[in-house]
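ok so i was messing around last nite and threw this chain in just to see what happens. nothing serious, just curious
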Amino acid sequence: MPRMSLFLLWLCLCNSAWALNPARLDNTDVRLSLGPHMSYLEDPRGSLRLQDVQNTPSERFQPVNHDHVNLGKNTSVWWFRVELDNRLAETLPGFLEINYPLLDHLQLYLQTPDGRVSQQESGDRFAFSQRPVQVRNFWFPLQLPSGNSQLLIRVDTTSTVFFPVYFSTYAANAAAQEDLMAWNGAFYGMLLAMVFYNLFLFLSLREATYCWYVVYGLNVVLLGACFDGLLFKLLPDATALQAVSIYILLFTQTLAAVQFSRHFLHTKEYFPRLDTGLRVSMLVIVALLASGLLLNLQLWAALASISLLSFSLVLLLVGIFSWRRGVSYGPYYTVAWTVVLLAFAIATAGSLGFDLFGLYGATAIKIGVTIELVTLSIGLANRINILKDEGFSSRQAAEQANLANQAKGRFLAT
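result:
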């Protein structure tokens, strides 16, 4: 009898996990995360159709139990299901927000209480003008009749299956975007200010290190814009480029970082062997970038993430080595690369399905790269001051030597 009681208790717990509560919508001003009310089904071969999924028993769906789901990189197709319970007497209009702009193909099916099914689709395989709502993320307009509606979403992507989903009414959606726009404006404003400031210094001083700082900083801006879905608005019809742009930028980011490091640390003058190694590493990065013509997209994407993380670690070790060998501006470089390595580690972990900061992971990465660029800019200023002091000391020593030679000449003449 006790064993039977334990079995019944286990069965009840399983049923409660399978029977997720519908997302309750009882307000005309609401923005609700659907993750805690959502479950998902893996389709390894991508063969399931809508009717197959509708007929699949609930116990085969896995509950999300979080504000979002991150299933990492894989080759499966995924189906997500959620019940939307409109408790109001009238139809509730709003948006379904899928706030990750790198998903390839999304198909949305809404079954209303009267049994009718409507379909919408989007993704980065589609031109920007083909999106149901022309914004940087994937939004779908919904009209929810009173009662219980079922939402099924099919996700097929080569990128990370990161899936933060919200239902928001128009007013709540606008309020959330106001806060997000302020943060994004501050982030991109700071980065562009650092880029243009150092561009001005390059044009004034003709110092190559400033040029490579500008190249590196612009790549950071473009990479951030790609992660945020802003490049889709700048290149609305270039769907083929959109599919690979983020991976190209990861490789060029690595390439620009190595070249900037060579100039910042003066490896050619101070550490010739190390400089040779860095040059060889640049050739390796170029080869990896070109390998995208031969490899499948998913493998190439993984190589891009691994290359950025591994070369960032190498550059951190180069900075520590330079610092220990007496390069006075090495500490700035080392601190900057420590911060950015942590940021890239967060990004790489997220792409593999390990969320270290959840929905705040993207914010942590942006803060990290901002600190890096500011620290490197300060280090550049310190480096120039040191070089000026060294130049002044050299000129002073030369003048003193010249005076000594003149005095020696006058003495011998007498």
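not much to say yet. Residues 36 and 65 are 5 Å apart (CA to CA).
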